[in-house]
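Re: weekly structure request thread

Next one in the queue (546 aa):
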Amino acid sequence: QSTSEKMLTLSRATRISTSKVLRASFSSELAYNKYPFLERLGLKEENLGCWNGKEWLGNGAVHTAMNPATGEPIARVKFGSAEDYETCVQNMTESMDMWKSLPAPRRGELVRQIGLKLRDHQEDLGALISLEMGKIKTEGMGEVQEFIDMADLAVGMSRQIPGQMLPSEREDHALVEVWNPLGQIGIISAYNFPCAVHGWNTAVSLICGNTQIWKGAESSSLLTVAQTKLIADVIQDNNLPGGIATMCQGSGAVVGQRMVDDKRLNLISFTGSTKVGRGVAASVAGRFGRSILELGGNNAVIIMDDADLKVALPSVLFAAAGTAGQRCTTLRRLLVHEAVYDQFVPALVDAYSKLKPGNPLEPGTLLGPLHNTAAVNTYLDGIAEMKKQGGKVLYGGERIPQELLVEKGLQNGHYVWPTLVESTPDMPIVKEELFVPITHVMKVKSFEEAVEMNNSTPFGLSSALFTKDFRNVFNWIGPRGSECGIINVNTSCSGAEIGGAFGGEKDTGAGRESGSDSWKQYMRRGTCAINYGTSVPLAQGVDFSI
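Done, posted below.
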């Protein structure tokens, strides 16, 4: 070799060696190897973020999944591109005719197997939710259980989708109501329930005969990929087209807005903020599509003077501090009757003092981190504004000191104290939702005043009343009571069972998910007039004889 050739060879070798070192260094920064359940779920250090039903793709931006408890990077996901998204919808369309033609009970059998698959991986999925979202392990497991329960419920639904035979005013005629698949569905879920919300929609939509595409929150991309892998395996095991259930991770601009604007998607189920939801609603309505909107909430609990305080206390504690205040149904406003205020509020403050920060993956931890730095800033700014408006901090109100976190390796986590603020109804911030663990505590003099305060915000998701007076109970759940979609009595406003419909009113959005008759939103209704006679009478007695 000439001198120049030798130098070129050496340069190439150096570049290759340097590249390997950089890749090794880049890879070693990840905490992936600390968590064996990631590999068991089919995840790697580098993952593709789009499943189009035939292959895994990832031609978009690279996202690094973070652990909110430690601040460590976990693994990476390469998002889908606009072109990747298009292949998803094309494969959904190809799969549609075959899938909707299958009898509903056979579609239900697929969902039953998805439920079994989730059972087999519940422990690992629950751990992944805790790792990536930050909620404690028991809540992560419980979220997977929601999807499992939805699968069980949907299997039964698949054999009971009803129609109606209605009487006709015309002789030898019948009116029949039938329900058929709506078509193609888009699911956009949020970070706080990355598994369950997808499950609510998927289990019901699939038994209704629709194909679907899912975009999970960017910051919960590992869960989105892992859950999609499990569902894809079940579909492939049944020799069904993968386009039945596709997934494309990406930003709102690249993937989310395309879903919202895509006329091929007959329904968009969106979970997120009210601000973004308004835009989703307008865009989908503008193309005459359907939407299910699970948006904000400013949920209240009322403690009446006759309430069983031993029942109310743990209910309020979980509603306010569970999931570090990051549930749609989290308690934001606590309305306590003046007769029991001085008894109940100090007991609640004492209960708060027993909540200690910990790693959400460790047994016994009840207080996990906020999801990201933005949430911490929202918390701190919110506390400052509440003080400015006259609020008095009863407990918390600051980040958890580093010295309490260092020994647990959590010093870079997003930990704040759950907070109680004594507020007044005229404080503007009381009517806002901050989505952090801050609860306003306010006195009320009567049931009527409490109901009025409950209904005084733009939102209408969840609410609860603690009382032994059945006159109050039936007024509370009746037309003069709570204006929320969830109206509880003597139990927490946070959390919901899958058997009932989940959703709210006003700025909380529109539509319902989960149980009851929510399935109707995923199907189209047809009214059929059938003439089984030999004459042609017209309705309403119209005579058009020649």
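The chain is about 40% helix and 20% strand. The longest helix spans residues 3-28.
Next request, please.
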